[in-house]
Amino acid sequence: MYWGDALSTARRATLAGSAVALVAVVVAILVPVAAQQSRVETGDTPVSFYDLKTASLAGAPADLGRYRGMVSLVVNVASKCGYTPQYEGLEQLQREMGGKGFNVLGFPSNDFGGQEPGTAQEIADFCRLTYDVTFPMFAKVATRAGADQSPVYRFLGASGDLPAWNFSKYVIDRHGAVVAFFPSDVTPEDPRLRTAIAQAMAVR
Fold first, then answer.
1. Is 133 helix (H, G, I), strand (E, B) or coil?
2. How far apart are CA 68 and CA 47, in angstroms?
């Protein structure tokens, strides 16, 4: 073999090695993207509450990503329930902690006892005039498992808990994970709820 032939063989080997390396880099980039796209297309549960999108009570698009980095208390609310006076305590929580990286997020639902039958405007008026609610309120949702279940409650239900009645409460940490669940009879003033919120607030 001539020296020139050996040099050409070495160059071809180097080029082949570079091509393999380039393919490996491309695969490393594209596979996670494809996996993410597949997860979105197949409707798999998002990894974070803050990945979800919904609608405001007024009907405008609402991206829950705006609360990323904060702690949230998610509550399925109703206007004609025995627990409806909890709006007062929820609003108090919002006013105490709303400027400290915390928000109450209200999701009206008519799932239990038909106790949220009103229109979006009726719900908004009731909350404003009766309890002076300032925390974010979203469009009416179905919380129960089924074809019409809200993606928000599909995600929340993956934690193992779904509301059994109005005013059930989820504490969501700064990264969008469910860290605590409380049934309807645990009030906004309950030390157990307050402790769970404080613990979530303490974690960065």
1. coil
2. 13
Give yes or no: 81 in active site.
yes
Fold held by 49-202: Glutaredoxin (3.40.30)
- Token readout for 72 is 């949230």
**Is residue 156 within 8 Å of residue 178, measured between CB atoms?**
yes
pTM: 0.79
CA distance 202 to 204: 7
**In which band, very low, low, confident or very high, does the pLDDT at 7 lie, cut at 50, 70 and 90?**
very low
Amino acid making up residue 24:
A
Q: Which one of 81, 172, 186, 193 is the catalytic residue?
A: 81
Amino acid residing at 119: T
For residue range 110-137, what is the model confidence (pLDDT) as tens digits? 999 999 999 999 999 999 999 999 999 9
DSSP letter for 136, please: -
Q: Which residues contact 95 (CB under 8 A, 6 or more apart)?
A: 134
Domain residue ranges in the chain: 1-44, 49-202
**Could you read off the pLDDT of 153-162 as tens digits, one per residue?**
999 999 999 9
Closest CA to 133 of 92, 182, 101, 82: 92
According to DSSP, residue 110 is labeled -
